[in-house]
Design goal:
Elements lengths: L2 H33 L2 E5 L3 H13 L4 H15 L19 E7 L5 E7 L5 H11 L4 E3 H10 L10 H12 L10 E2 L10 E2 L2 H6 L18 E6 L5 E7 L20 E4 L3 E7 L1 H4 L4 H10 L4 H15 L5 E7 L4 E6 L4 E6 L7 E5 L7
Parallel strand pairs: 3-4
Antiparallel strand pairs: 1-7, 1-13, 2-3, 2-8, 5-6, 7-8, 9-10, 10-11, 11-12, 13-14
Helix pairs in contact: 2-3, 3-4, 9-10
Length: about 350
Amino acid sequence: MDPKHDAQKEFKMSYFLLFLLLSFHVIAVVFSAEVLPLVINTWAFTNATQKAWEVISSGDGSVLDAVEQGCSVCEIEQCDGTVGYGGSPDETGESTLDAMIMDGVTHDVGSVAQLRRIKSAISVARAVMMYTKHTLLVGEAATNFAIEMGFHNESLSTNSSIEKYKKWKAKDCQPNFRQNVLPDPEEHCGPYHPSNLKEKQAGKQQQRVNMDVDEHNHDTIGMIVIDEDGNVAGGTSTNGASHKVPGRVGDSPITGSGAYVDNDIGGAAATGDGDVMMRFLPSYQAVENLRQGMSPTKACEDVLVRIVKKYPTFSGALVAATNKGLYGGACHGFSSFHYSLQMPSLKSVKVVEVNCTQPSR
């Protein structure tokens, strides 16, 4: 064999492989340039999507800035009455707020739950991340922290939320989240006390599902933003479930439940029956599914299958996106589910409709 000929052959092969690698890299860069940056959020809250897009596409802000400002729009506009002040009064008639924000680069999280008398929940959540070493602050103490950080203390009630509370009281406090108590929560208002333990044990086990969750009572905006370099952030904001037991915290401010992001992979956000969904950490699982090679749509579908196996009548949905700009969503129990999307190939915010699986009859 000719050593010189072999050396030339090896050189040509190495050169060819290098050429292929560089070609794939160029293709990947061009593809990313066409699909990133990207903003995706639950429901047709298009003004929130547009605001986040303006921030991230202009280069004037980070992915965290885009998430904060996008979700803030929904808080101000009181999207569907399920985000921001003046919505979802609890058993006492008070509106409280939950929110979280997560940085995919550092895995830092800031969140607040049962925030009282402060309108800018997503901004307070970011303040928790910026000005403390904690992850989650709750209740009156979270309000005190917000005031220390310069946020305005004001009532979250509106004429609409007060009227909604009065109508609920007039209907004997229906619907109701209590169970295994007396008087019968399906017929009476409280105060309540536990029913007889033997009666509870003998009675039929109730499915702990909120049957009143639908596309107009779905709790949350969940948003994922990815910049042109593939950096990811996510966030949520909600006023929770209408007529909830005071002190109730849903999935929205819980890391891995309401939303989850990982710069190595992408992000996901959830919406729906938060009391059920938080038992499965659906957003975390969706991102892990992406890590295993599933498409965003399949990643969301797989999570819902896991939940439906235990709670077949629950209602919920997820959206997910990779750091390369692939995206998708899935839903169960809703009559319909829509998510909002903006990316370079779109002239304006696009609302995508998803067909939902339904409980078996």
